[in-house]
Design brief:
There is one protein chain. The protein is an alpha/beta fold. It is built from 6 helices and 26 strands. It holds the Pfam family Hexapep_2. This is 2,3,4,5-tetrahydropyridine-2-carboxylate N-succinyltransferase.
Length: about 280
């Protein structure tokens, strides 16, 4: 099916809102999954001006798979059994042909996600449906690439990094990590946050739509504008910090503070040397 035909299939099925899957649904849905896995369609697409456009009908199609799928037992034998919607089994990836490494130890790639060439995945990690992981990226141990998250080229998602997913609302921007970013261990990036090209997110940083980011270099506070998402600037180096709680005498008496991300600098030669080492290690 062409992209136009797939969009028409999703739109028509969603508008009908039938309680059971309409005739021919699963055959068309298989074509939909294949288009996601080949990168022909994706939940969000980069635009020429640097913005990202949400393809709402793609996210709607993913939700239809959950609606009409049935929970069935899956797995190869009694020692590895799981139970999930039959529309979203695990995905087979031809690793040797595409230089993709999936190291043994409990990693799973769900159907409906795109995995680029030369991606390395360390166990255990998980890539959810609708996600897009571009070429040369590393997904390290215990890392999550959530539903519809968009990960660029040559990104390193360090151990226990959590890239949040988003399917609803349909028009919501998923989490986006652009090319050449380094995402540190035990980080959390949620609620449609956009991490621009080349940024470094230090270990332990948590970013959400309501998180203010303090830029020490340019002496500004970065917040999500009304109706938009939080954006981390290109080449920013973000570390976890704290700020004192104001307007509360008891908090002041006890020296209490809240966590806040701080842009400590923008990438320089030393930072780039670290990323060069990462590529050599791969």
């Amino acid at each position: 099916m062409t992209v136009t035909q797939l969009e028409a299939f999703v739109t028509k099925t969603a508008e009908a809102a039938a309680s059971t899957a309409p005739e021919g649904f699963f055959e068309s849905f298989e074509s939909f999954l294949q288009a996601l896995e080949s990168g022909e369609i994706r939940a969000a697409s980069p635009q020429a001006d640097g913005s990202w456009a949400v393809n709402g009908w793609v996210k709607q199609g993913i939700l239809l798979g959950f609606k009409y799928g049935k929970v069935v037992p899956m797995g190869t034998d009694s020692s590895f059994k799981f139970f999930d919607k039959d529309t979203y089994p695990t995905q087979y990836v031809d690793g040797p042909a595409r230089t993709i490494r999936v190291v043994p130890g409990g990693s799973t790639i769900r159907r409906g996600s795109f995995i680029g060439n030369k991606v390395t995945m360390m166990p255990p990690m998980y890539v959810n449906c609708g996600a897009y992981v571009d070429e040369g990226t590393m997904v390290d141990s215990h890392a999550l690439v959530g539903s519809c998250a968009q990960i660029g080229k040559r990104v390193h998602l360090s151990a226990a990094a959590q890239i949040g997913g988003v399917l609803e609302p349909i028009g919501a921007v998923p989490v986006i990590v652009e090319d050449d970013c380094m995402i540190g261990g035990n980080t959390g990036i949620y609620e449609g946050t956009i991490v621009r090209k080349g940024a470094v997110i230090g270990a332990g940083v948590v970013l959400t739509r309501s998180t203010p980011v303090y830029d020490l270099v340019q002496k500004r506070i970065i917040r999500a504008e009304a109706g938009k998402t939080l954006e981390i600037p290109e080449d920013a180096v973000v570390i976890p910090g704290t700020r004192a709680i104001s307007g509360n005498s008891w908090a002041a008496e006890n020296g209490l503070a809240v966590q806040c991300p701080i842009i400590i600098k923008y990438r320089d030669d030393k930072t780039d040397a670290a990323t060069t080492l990462e590529s050599l290690l791969r």
